[in-house]
Amino acid sequence: MTRKPNAQETAEVLRFIESSGQSLISRNCIVDTIGENPLSFPAMIRHNERTRGDVVSQIMNLRFPLLNQTGKKPASRVWIIQNQTGVQCATC
């Protein structure tokens, strides 16, 4: 069982989500952004990439509905951030 994300990790991910302006966002996009901008994610960058992905999934699953409910690969998860028509998926 994976540990529960702490408050700083949660705040870093949610701050990125709010600033992204996207309606849909993928786990890969969030994890890649953390790796590319380590100074903006001091709590998340301490984890290896797999753990980062697990923590991101936990944070996002608690707050946003999944777009692809049947996807078996965790890296392919996409969450609905805003409910709008004609949205495009956020990709990095």
Structural summary, described in words:
It is a single chain. With 92 residues, this protein is mainly α. The chain is built from three helices and three strands, in the order αβααββ. The protein has helices spanning 7-20, 27-36, 49-63, and strands at 24-26, 78-80, 89-90. It has a three-stranded mixed sheet. Helix 2 (27-36) packs across helix 3. The longest helix has 15 residues, at 49-63. The chain is globular.
Question: What topology does this entry show?
Answer:
Blueprint: H1 7-20, E1 24-26, H2 27-36, H3 49-63, E2 78-80, E3 89-90
Parallel strand pairs: 1-3
Antiparallel strand pairs: 1-2
Helix pairs in contact: 2-3
Let me know the number of strands.
3
Mean pLDDT: 84
User: What is the helix tally?
Assistant: 3
Round the Cα radius of gyration to an integer and report it: 12 Å
How is the main sheet built? 3 strands, mixed
The ordered H/E elements are HEHHEE
Structural class label: mainly alpha
Cross-sheet strand order for the largest sheet: 2-1-3
Q: What oligomeric state is this?
A: single chain
The best one-word shape is globular
What is the helix fraction of residues, given as a range? Answer: 40-55%
Ranges where pLDDT stays below 50 over 5 or more residues in a row are: 84-92
Distance between the termini: 29 Å
- Beta fraction of the residues? 5-15%
Compact summary:
With 92 residues, this protein is mainly alpha-helical.
Characteristics:
3 helices; disordered C terminus; 3 strands; 92 residues; mainly alpha; 3-stranded mixed beta sheet
